[in-house]
Amino acid sequence: MARGRLAVSGGGPVVLRSAAWFGEGATGGDLRAFSHRSRMRQLGYLPEEHLGKPVIAILNPWSDINPCHMHLRERAEQVRRGVWQAGGFPLEFPVSTMSETFQKPTPMLYRNLLAMEAEELLRSYPVDGAVLMGACDKTVPALLMGATSAGLPSIVLPSGPMLRGHYRGRTLGSGTDLFAYWDEHRAGRIGECELAEVECGLARSAGHCMTMGTASTMTAAAEALGMALPGSSSVPAVDSAHHRMAAACGARAVALVREGLTPAKVLTRAAFEDAAATVLALGGSTNALIHLIAMAGRAGVELSLEDFDTIGARVPVLADVRPVGDHLMEDFYYAGGLPALLAQLARDPGVLHPERETVSGRPFASYYADAEIRLPKVIRTREDPVAPEGGVAVLRGNLAPGRAVVKHLAADPKLLTHTGPAVVFDSYRELKDRIDDPALGITEDTVLVLRGAGPLGGPGMPEYGMLPIPAYLLERGVKDLVRISDARMSGTSYGTCVLHVAPESHVGGPLALVRTGDLITLDVPNRLLTLEVQDEELRRRRAAWQPPAPHYERGYGALYAEHVTQADTGCDFDFLSRPGRNPEPDPR
Ligand code: FES
Ligand code: MG
């Protein structure tokens, strides 16, 4: 993606893409270069402040509505400091914010839009390299997908987890305790006053969810890919170490440009295998499977759901962090952070790839060499794991020809082999309205089925996958049921929830054919999900099936519906994931 030429101090002559906009030297180039330089003067910069320096775009998803990124406006200042000190020129670009809490129907609908925005911003402006800020769930995958397709040297600045939650001397975890205390309230065990206290104590600082949700999982995945600095994903958002790390990211982005270290050099098959191993050792979010497959697609790397099952078989779960364990990300940081966990993984020489390139400029082994566990209750050793193998199982069977996933570590073990009659809901609205109705006759044997919640049906595959348990069962102490859907589930959720059933019901996947009363068998040890209905009967039902009306008639929603792929291939747009090169813009 290079055009112009300019020498930069430190690493010898470097071709700067941005020089195509500004011309060579202080007066070089044509009318356009003259025009671009005059506008830089209008912005208040001296020629010597930017000419010949790597231009670093700081992609910043800060917004008033995003508490997980609320510190990033200020943190961008530390990135700038690092860029200036390393001899670069920083330019901050506000990008679309994806707040997992506030954006509806779900930010997943917009992940590919942010990926497109990032790619096209980097492509269309005088930019040589990028710092990708953020964490709230889809943000890191979106920005990395865009930067990978743009092909410019880039580094992820993870926005960091928030501090632990607090309530009457107890520690609260985001998501996990939101659900748990809400169920306590529904069961009549806590009143309005207590609930108001929980509301104030659940999230009490800037930063992303501090459980092992999608944000903690995907920022760790970015580090394990070698796209973020060593240890950076574990630093709490409000810790001074986060400021220092931000400055280091800015400085390193400048060096990446000088070294020509593009995402393509880092994002190899080996990198994705290491990221998958890391996600599984963390007991991470099931969303990571969708995102890593989509990110690999952008890098031209083959990665399938089966790879996660294969890798999981040789990777123990080592992070004792909720919802799989007991602790929170703040504890994980004090325990040594991701480097300490990677060091444990690396003790089995077959698991990680120590020699591969990273944005740190050093081999991946340097991410964990000499790292030690400081709190062995939080980061476990290989000898004393949370679980002997990875926490996510990939299921197949006549109900999920394109596979489904279950985070069986966060499930009730006695439900992992279970046959029961289905109670089917066609939409989340119907489910919410009817779930507490005793007339449905839901018992602990029931298999709850939600459809119409996939990439197209949701739309955007919302995190409905932890279907609520009827209040009358909660009152009797029933805490888990087998639940099946084509939805996703928050990484902070738990229970025997079979997710990402593909193909989804909206496009006529077998989930569309299930009827209340049908028997369904979940067999996690054998990785099977079976609808116990004869093929002949299923053929009859299929012949009578009518596809639902599309959600969107125009706009982005219609574009999304036309191009989104199913969960097993990462829900990217077909036209974004296919190989091919776009021309560089000609700034002259
Ligand atoms: Fe932003 Fe959980 S809501 S990371
Ligand atoms: Mg989440």
Architecture overview:
Keywords: 2Fe-2S, Amino-acid biosynthesis, Branched-chain amino acid biosynthesis, Iron, Iron-sulfur, Lyase, Metal-binding. It comes from Actinacidiphila epipremni. This protein is an alpha/beta fold and 588 residues long. It is built from 21 helices and 16 strands. The protein has an 8-stranded mixed beta sheet with strand order 9-10-14-13-12-11-15-16. The protein has a 4-stranded parallel beta sheet with strand order 4-3-5-6, with helices on both faces. Helix 6 (139-150) packs parallel to helix 13 (287-298). It starts with 5 loop residues before the first strand and ends in an 11-residue tail after the last helix. The model is unreliable at 1-9 (pLDDT under 50). Bound molecules: FE2/S2 (inorganic) cluster and magnesium ion (MG). Residues 68, 100-101, 136-137, 208-209, 213, 215 line the site of FE2/S2 (inorganic) cluster (FES).
